[in-house]
Design a protein that fits this description.
258 residues; alpha/beta; single chain; 12 helices; Rossmann fold; binds magnesium ion; seven-stranded mixed sheet; binds adenosine-5'-diphosphate; globular
């Protein structure tokens, strides 16, 4: 039975998409079966895997709103199977309002795939509205990337209270998978201070692996590849490989390096 992990933080630019693409690819390299659902109308995860976000093939929007077959939306890539998004998804929130089970549309769409994949990742948009609510209802756990900068903790309390509400009402089993520190710069006191503060807020939940600020991570998407394929020796690639190993070990599996 696979695990569905939503990558959530209502702040934009904190590394959700970068983490989604590169963690997924690193897990696939560990022989895990990976499905990634792009759930952000910006569709950066889609293009990050080299999938055309302007293609006419079904996207997650068509699956949610027009009842398209989710299996037909899946695009296999070398690094993960991808359910693409596109800008139409931005309008979905309004269209979903009148639908029955509107909070569970994504959960229902992903339900057939639990046996086929070890991990299903959902890359969320930077907000806490109905799309993210759908992701929180579909997810077993949430992974929160936190950027190592001054306002890092701002908004995390809103996120936590949203999760508490979801747990109470819509998805009692949801749990925190972990918190990953991103864009860490070990030369600055600020990065160190933010890391310490986040660890105080989430005892035992912050990954030992920290993602450094690394230009290769910001270049890889324009080549339509995860960093491990774009520059496998970069610090960014090494960090996401380590994060994948840590995540697998935390889920109770030994990692054998080949
Ligand atoms: P989000 O999905 O949370 O909005 P992104 O993953 O798109 O955030 O990251 C925002 C920007 O920062 C992107 O341009 C991305 O390439 C860049 N970026 C993300 N993580 C890193 C990193 N560790 N080092 C350098 N640039 C990064
Ligand atoms: Mg994003």
């Amino acid at each position: 039975m696979g695990k569905t992990i939503a990558i959530v933080n209502q702040k934009g630019g904190v590394g959700k998409t970068t983490t989604c693409v590169n963690l997924a690819a690193a897990l696939k390299a560990l022989d895990r079966r990976i499905l990634v659902c792009d759930f952000d109308p910006q569709a950066n995860t889609t293009s990050g895997f080299g999938v055309d976000k302007t293609a006419s093939s079904p996207s997650i929007y068509d699956v949610l709103i027009d009842d398209a077959d989710c299996r037909k939306a899946i695009v296999p890539t070398v690094w993960a199977d991808v359910i693409p998004s596109n800008k139409a998804l931005a309008g979905a929130t309004v269209e979903m309002i009148g639908m029955s089970r509107r909070e569970y549309l994504l959960k229902d769409a992903l339900a057939p795939f639990h046996e086929e994949y070890d991990y299903i990742f959902v890359d969320c948009p930077p907000s806490l509205e109905l799309l993210t609510l759908n992701a929180l209802c579909a997810a077993d756990t949430i992974l929160v990337p936190v950027q190592c900068e001054y306002y890092a903790l701002e908004g995390l309390s809103d996120l936590l209270s949203t999760i508490r509400i979801v747990k109470r009402s819509l998805n009692p089993d949801i749990d925190l998978e972990g918190v990953v520190l991103t864009m860490f710069d070990g030369r600055t006191n600020l990065s160190m201070q933010v890391a310490e503060e986040v660890k105080r807020h989430f005892p035992g939940k912050v990954y030992a692996t920290v993602i450094p600020r690394n230009v290769r991570l910001s270049e890889a998407p324009s080549h339509g590849k995860p960093v491990t394929a774009y520059d496998g020796l970069s610090r960014g690639a090494e960090a996401y490989r380590a994060l994948a190993e840590e995540l697998v070990e935390k889920n109770g599996y030994a990692v054998t390096r080949v």
